[in-house]
Each structure stands twice: as structure tokens, then as C-alpha cells.
Specification:
Length: 133
């Protein structure tokens, strides 16, 4: 049996007739095809990293970055940083003036509920200038 150089061990399975070899794949290589392919959402020379748009968990599994989970459903685009440790959100200006890596921060000059209008005492959205006498 060819494990494509991606096995941590190869053992003989004597429960079958004739006996066969079994690959124990390293990292996240696919055991169904004797460690030949690296299944999504994994990538890398040794199938030990998460693809873009996913973050790596402590147990080395990958979690997808999503608008609903990571960006308060306020993003135009969601991806992961280069290190695959954090999700990154590009906040959608059509949904308000939300800021921050998870689109949860509303600058004080805006209404804090919707972030789509000026706060009290301010006019001319989206500039939201202070009222002056």
C-alpha cells in the first residue's frame, strides 16, 4: 500500500484475507484514500494548516469565519488573518457605520442602536456634526 509519504505509521491488518497494509495518516491527510489528499478546509505542505477564511482551533481543527458568527451579520467580506488565528471583517457601510474587527463598535457620534443615524445633538448623517448656536 502506498501512503504517499503522509503516514505516521503503516501496519499490517491481519483481520482481512489476504492481509493488507493500513496507513495511519499524519495531520489531516485523508485516510479514505491512504493519505493521498488533503481535504478541505486544510492545506499546506503537510496538510497541517487551515485554508484562508478559517481559523485554527487549539485541537488543530478549523472553524470557518462567517458573517453571522464573527461579524455580527454586518460585514461585506469575512476572512482570516495570515496566521489563521483571527477572523477579519470588512464592515458593510450600508448596514451602518459599524467599526472594529467584528463590526460591533459604533462611534459615539452615531445612534448606538442602529449606527445608521446621528446621535442626539448631532446632524447631517453620516458626518454627524455637533449642533451649534
Amino acid at each position: 500500500v502506498d501512503c504517499y509519504g503522509h503516514a505516521s505509521s503503516v501496519s499490517e491488518d491481519t483481520t482481512t484475507s489476504p492481509s493488507t497494509c493500513t496507513c495511519t495518516c499524519r495531520n489531516k491527510w485523508n485516510p479514505a484514500d491512504n493519505c493521498k489528499t488533503c481535504p478541505s478546509p486544510y492545506e499546506g505542505v503537510d496538510c497541517n494548516a487551515c485554508q484562508a477564511g478559517f481559523i485554527t482551533n487549539a485541537d488543530t481543527t478549523c472553524t470557518e469565519c462567517t458573517n453571522a458568527t464573527n461579524c455580527n451579520s454586518r460585514a461585506l467580506e469575512v476572512t482570516s488573518n495570515t496566521e489563521r488565528t483571527q477572523c477579519s471583517c470588512e464592515c458593510d457601510p450600508e448596514l451602518g457605520m459599524w467599526r472594529g474587527s467584528d463590526c460591533s463598535q459604533c462611534p459615539t457620534k452615531y445612534d448606538q442602536t442602529s449606527c445608521k443615524s446621528c446621535a442626539a445633538g448631532r446632524v447631517n448623517y453620516p458626518q454627524c456634526s455637533l449642533c451649534r448656536d
